[in-house]
Amino acid sequence: MAVVDSTCSQGSETIAVMNKPNHQDDVTVQHERSLTTLSRAITHAQGRFTLILVRCNYAGLQEQILAELRQRSGLEILAINLRASSHSLYSTMTATIGSPHPNAVIVFGIESLQNVDDFLVSLNRLRDDFLHNFPFPLVLWINDFVQQKLIKLAPDFYSYAPVPIRFAIATEELFPFLPQEAEEIFRHITYQLCMNMGQSMPLNWQTTEN
C-alpha cells in the first residue's frame, strides 16, 4: 500500500502529515498469498512425499488456516495434534493413518512437546522411511523456536522442504493470543526446569493426539 503525503498550514509553518500504511491490510495480503502458496503446494504434490513447512508463531491460527485450506483445496487433509509426550512422528503417523491415505497430513504441536530434541533427531534418522512409506504431502506447523532446532538437529530432513511458508498476524488481532503465547513460554520454562532437576513433567501436561 502506498504512503500518501499531505500538508497543512499552521501560521507561517507548513506541517507534513504522513498517512502510514495500513499494517492490517498488508498482513491480510500476505495471509492470502501464503494460503494460496500452501494450497498449490499440496495440490501439486499429490501422490508423492513432499515436506512443507508452515512457520507461524501463533498456534491460535491453526484451526482457521486448516479450515481455509480444506475449503480452498477441496482435499482430504488429516490433522494430527501431537501429545506432549510424543517422541516419534513416524510412529504416530503409522498408527494414525489408515487406508486409503489422506491427500495430505498437517501436524500441530511440535512446539509443545516435552522433548523436542529427541523428536527432531528421530525425524532426521527416519527421513528415508518418510520418503518411501508416505506418498503424500506432509505439512509441519513450526514456530521460530522449532525451526531453529529443526535446522540444527534434523538438517537432512529439513533439506527436503523448500522455504517455509510464513503466516503472520496483524497487531490489532494479536491481543487475544497473548495469554496463549505466555502459556507456551511457561511450558517451555517448566520443561527445562524439570529436566534440569531430573523430574518428570506434570501429569496434566497433555494435548490431544488424533
What does this structure look like?
With 210 residues, the protein is an alpha/beta fold. The chain is 46% helix and 18% strand. It contains 9 helices and 7 strands, in the order ββαβαβαβααβααβαα. The protein has helices spanning 23-44, 62-73, 89-96, 116-125, 127-133, 144-153, 155-158, 171-174, 178-197; strands at 4-10, 13-19, 50-55, 77-81, 104-108, 137-142, 165-166. Helix 3 (89-96) links the parallel strand 4 (77-81) and strand 5 (104-108). Helix 1 (23-44) crosses helix 2 (62-73) and helix 4 (116-125) crosses helix 6 (144-153). The longest helix is centred in the first third of the chain and has 22 residues, at 23-44. It comes from Tolypothrix tenuis PCC 7101.
